[in-house]
Amino acid sequence: MSFSEYKENISDGDTVILYLGHNTMQAITITPGKIHQTKYGALPHADMIGRRFGTKMFSKNRKGWVYLLHPTPELWTVNLRHRTQILYTTDISMVILKLALKPGSIVVESGTGSGSMSHSLIRTIAPTGHLHTFEFHAERAEIARKEFEHHKIPDLVTVTCRDVCKEGFGLSQVADAVFLDLPGPWDAIQSSKEALKSEGGRFCSFSPCIEQVQKTCEVLRSHGFRDITVMECLSRSFEVKTIPFQVPYLGPTVSMLSAS
């Protein structure tokens, strides 16, 4: 089972998203012999094997059901185990749009973190692109590497354990785009510029603090970057419902007739 390609039926070892409701989902790895417990009852893994992704599965006691969903980067983002703070779909989609990514793009990312952004980048640049992702924390880098292998996408990504703020990316003129999610992104701007292709590329840095944004923009200008913009993405839900109002009484209606 691959995050970059869709398959029809569930197999041993696949990642499956159990959908109980909009705010109740969980990612599991299919392992024969295991039984997943929910508020609706038991769900044996063995009973999931062979079923089509997207189908409804009742619990053993028939008191409820779940939907067995094929994993996507969006579903993975809301179900993964947080090793760090992550980006969510609202910000991820805007980053991918502004970086103008497409199949075949070469992208440099730091840091890898929990891999939320990485999965969306890989899905976007597949099947001929490549992601170079850097993580300074050795354990997080190794966990991310194993996740990419389990999700059948290791050929699309290279995981490197390195502090790019001190050591740089070690890449020269290979990237179409660079994405940074770092506390001090300004320390990696020179290395980012070196990693971008000579004919030009796009750079994006995600920062939660306006002071970080201001310093990053200053350093970008000093390194010759142009067309610098700053964006904030906000997600707001609207509820549409019918509300009845009484028709106001404005007094008797008087008709005026004129004869000609």
Descriptive account of the structure:
The chain is α/β, with parallel strands linked by helices and 260 residues long. The chain contains 7 helices and 11 strands. It has a 5-stranded parallel β-sheet with strand order 9-8-7-10-11, sandwiched between helices. Strand 10, helix 6 (189-195) and strand 11 (202-205) form a beta-alpha-beta unit. The protein is flat and about 70 Å long.
Which regions have little confidence, pLDDT < 50, spanning 5+ residues? none
- What percent of the residues sit in helical stretches (DSSP H or I)? 10-25%
The assigned structural class equals alpha/beta
- Largest sheet strand order: 9-8-7-10-11
Largest sheet: 5 strands, parallel
Total helical elements? 7
Q: What sequence of helices (H) and strands (E) makes up the elements?
A: EEEEEEHHEHEHEHEHEH
Shape: flat
Number-wise, the strands total: 11
Report the mean per-residue pLDDT as an integer.
93
Termini separation: 85 Å
Strand percentage: 15-25%
Radius of gyration: 25 Å
Task: Give the arrangement of secondary structure elements.
Blueprint: E1 15-21, E2 24-29, E3 35-38, E4 41-44, E5 56-58, E6 65-69, H1 73-77, H2 89-98, E7 106-110, H3 116-125, E8 130-135, H4 138-150, E9 157-161, H5 164-167, E10 177-180, H6 189-195, E11 202-205, H7 210-222
Parallel strand pairs: 7-8, 7-10, 8-9, 10-11
Antiparallel strand pairs: 1-2, 1-6, 3-4, 5-6
Write a concise synopsis of the structure shown:
The protein is an alpha/beta fold. Helices cover 24% and strands 20% of the residues.
